[in-house]
Amino acid sequence: MREVALVAFAQSPSVRQDLRRNEVEILTPVIAEAIRWGGVPRKEIGFTCSGSCDYLAGVPFSFVSALDAVGAWPPIRESHVEMDGAWALYEAWVRLQVGDVDSALVYGFGKSSVGDPRDISVLQLDPYYAAPLWPDSVSLAALQARALLQSSGYTERDFAEVVARSLRDAKRNPNAQVSGDFSPDELVKARYDVSPLREHDCPPVSDGAAAVVLAAGDLARKVCERPAWIAGIDHRIEAHSLGARDLTKSPSAALAAEKAGMGKGSLDVAELHAPFSHQELILREALGLGESVAINPSGGALAANPIMAAGLIRIGEAAQLVMDGSAKRAVGHATSGPCLQQNLICVLEAR
Amino acid sequence: MAERCAVAGIGQTKYSAKRTDVSMAGLVREAALRALEDAEMTWKDIDAVVIGKAPDLFEGVMMPEIYLADALGAVGKPMMRVHTAGSVGGSTAIVASHLVHGAAFERVLTVAYEKQSESEATWALTVRVPFSLPLVAGAGGYFAPTIRQYIKRSGAPENIGTMVAVKDRLNALRNPYAHLRMEGINADMVMASPMLWDPLRYLDACPSSDGACAMVLTNEKNAERVMNPAWILATAMRSEPISFPGRDEVSPRAGRDAASELYLEGGITNPREEIDVAEVYVPFSWYEPMWMENLGFAPKNEGWKMTAEGATAFDGDLPVNPSGGVLSSNPIGASGMIRFAEAALQVRGQAGEHQVDGAQVALGHAYGGGSQFFSMWLVGSAKP
Q: What's the number of domains chain A is made of?
């Protein structure tokens, strides 16, 4: 495959509700920053791809006005996925494989605060058999967490430890929305939201955006001192029907990791898109991540979860550590659908 | 050097106002199964699935690829969902072709659909957002002023739209999948239909349809297994902002730029001469002459002459929409892919009663948003 690397990453701070800015206004400075760091002039970007979801804002074509943040004039080669920006990155990586363009701008954005994402996510389910029952995203995650507790040695305190570590690490992340020092023993005393999940086991509602610049081969070397090379990228989906899946496992994450060649070398860091605390435990197991791998030094999705950007942010955070020299090999992960139905793995390395 | 890519299988559903006999999953599966059968493949031969549709509000299902994974045999495979407004059916096919061109996969299933009967598209397009331009009239009301602008600047006679409306519905009588099959359609019937958005009458407009279209795209090695693959000669996509001072909405630069890139890549120097048949996204009759100019088939302000002279008719020198086009079948998210698939059918010689004799090079075209998103491809019977 053609050598492609992340050469820039920018994100907005995640906030509970950005009352003063719409999606385009949140996005505009983020794209400008990514372009500035990326070193490829805006007019020379070969391909642009974004990820967003109409249902967050409740309007059709949420990506149309986002073009104003890109500055699509003269007209640009552009595409959009109704998926997390991580899949927009995948599309851009594929586009660069074709070989006729050398750079790409990728962004994802979501203003989750406009509606109630917990309820909106129900509309993602089978419209005939599942959605009418209205199982919201926290309830479905709780089913998964319960199944995990019953089939493994994990306890609710293990969930709390994931939360405590994530929020502690988030203190060093200026873009995080939630952070602080919490003891797992105190956390497990909190009331359940949906048993066995407590509020801190669930992601915050976040408004935010992220953008990255990709460049191929020599262009990447030219514009970036230490590009985060994509050693492998793959994504896989599982059955939608929850009854058809073993919710305590993530075969799609494991398969994506295998196809992306994650196991071909040792990892320093993994940024996992685990919106619920117990999902990190499932993913660690599926990906075979041992104690030597730092998990979510950014604080992960428990500290900030701007839907449609949160997965792209995981890849960006992992790439940032490669670009600044603190990691040699890192993985960024994104998920979509109820209970980790779909997973993407992006392996990044210094060369 | 990119891998070659070809269309090895094509599947369409019957298009109609309400497919109450199938669920959304049943609808996409029907098209996908036909494409697999055409390609002489089964689900397990497929490496990846790329699905597209127009806004999720059209059916009320958010990110429906999540729910459709099982129906499309995508479990354990990569699955992507493209959304680029009305051009999405075309864009989806192009994204799928990139997976093959880029050597990421060898056999890709791509599907686009809309089940408009599940909701109401004009409602879904009419949502008011603070500080945003409200689109309160649906697509027809949005495009009518642009059409009036075209008529004014080109001096086109008033009956051009009517001619297109009749021609495409006559073509639809040759296509068993077409939604509208209007025996005896003529200019009087179009003129007698109610005025909706001046100058567009009811019969100048596309229908609302349920339907799905699917294609199997493969690399060279796999394409050679089928009798007559449609080789992808070139693809192009362009986007521009919806609104800014001085924007030419009649003949948007994004469309012109995409066509130029397409012809350059496909080795076309005289599109009118070298392209045998075109499936062009014409949701309102007047868009045929407008796109003839935008696509470089006619000089500026002279596209209407092609319609007037019968050049775009089934027996003309550049048949446009022999399938009946969007004016006869419009499952919105699929309409672009249907254009791409129909172009492929023509160069494969498999278009049945609407086959254009000797078609060797064909254009598939789609546009969307406020005439701002364009996707197109050029397919041929000979390997590039």
A: 2
Distance, in Å, from the CA atom of A304 to the CA atom of A178, rounded to the nearest integer, reads 7
Q: What domains lie within chain B, and their CATH numbers?
A: 5-117+209-223 (3.40.47.10)
Do B108 and B215 contact (CB within 8 A), yes or no?
no
Q: Is A19 on the interface with B (CB under 8 A)?
A: no
CB A281 within 8 A of CB A154: yes
Q: Considering only the beta carbons, identify the residue of B23, B63, B239 that sits closest to A124.
A: B63
**Which residues 212-271 of chain A have a CB within 8 Å of chain B?**
234-241, 244, 251-252, 255
Mean pLDDT of B68-96: 97
Q: In this structure, what token pair is assigned to residue B377?
A: 């491809």
A35/A179 same-domain check: no
- 3-state helix, strand and coil shares in percent for chain B, rounded to the nearest 5: 35, 20, 45
Establish whether this prediction's ipTM goes over 0.85: yes
- Give the domain range for residue A83: 4-117+205-228
- Tell me: do A147 and A274 sit in the same domain: yes
Q: Are residues A235 and A298 in the same domain?
A: yes
> Could you report the per-residue pLDDT of A128-160, keeping only the tens digit for each?
999 999 999 999 999 999 999 999 999 999 999
Residue A124 located in a structural domain: no
The C-alpha of A67 sits at a distance from chain B's nearest C-alpha, in angstroms, of 6
Q: Are the beta carbons of A196 and A142 closer than 8 angstroms?
A: yes
The pTM (predicted TM-score) of the whole model is: 0.98
pLDDT tens digit sequence for B288-301: 999 999 999 999 99
Residue A133 lies in a domain: no
**A150 and A71 within one domain:** no
Does B22 lie at the interface with A, CB-CB under 8 angstroms? no
Pair A96, A108 in one domain: yes
Does B98 lie at the interface with A, CB-CB under 8 angstroms?
yes
| A121 in reach of chain B (CB within 8 A) | yes
Radius of gyration of chain B (CA): 19
| Structure confidence at residue A57 as a pLDDT band (50, 70, 90) | confident
Domain-located, residue A196? yes
